[in-house]
């Protein structure tokens, strides 16, 4: 029986709400970042700086915001070269895909570490493989061949 994939993502006091497409800072102070307003590089920076300028925002909470945005939206791959992200349901599906890929990689890492204690695990995500023009199935097969 397969493991169920959860859409819950937390980072520090930030939590992703897949129904409303926001990340919410939940502490003594409450703040939301609308992910549909982070579909272009300038919009994402706006939200980061908007939050960072709150008198109660800490370096840690700003860093956690950057990390959760990175995990959900992968700006390095989707925004940094002048790209943009979809909105609405398409954005929700893209984020769910990113979450699933991260959970699968975490599972691979756990299995690798269990079988190879003390050996480093190298995480090459499917996004990186796509960017290099590498077929994911072929890369997995090569990885299996190298381990034998």
Low-confidence stretches: 131-136, 139-148
Give the biggest sheet: 4 strands, antiparallel
Shape: globular
Quickly give the structural class.
alpha+beta
- Rounded radius of gyration (Å): 17 Å
Task: Give the integer mean of the pLDDT values.
Answer: 81
Domain module count: 1
Structure commentary:
- This protein has about 150 residues and is an alpha+beta fold.
- The protein has one domain.
- About 50% of the residues lie in helices and about 10% in strands.
- The protein is built from 6 helices and 4 strands; from the N terminus they run ββββαααααα.
- The chain has a 4-stranded antiparallel beta sheet with strand order 1-2-3-4.
- The radius of gyration is 17 Å and the shape is globular.
- It starts with 9 loop residues before the first strand and ends with a helix.
List keywords for this structure.
52% helix, disordered C terminus, 148 residues, 4-stranded antiparallel sheet
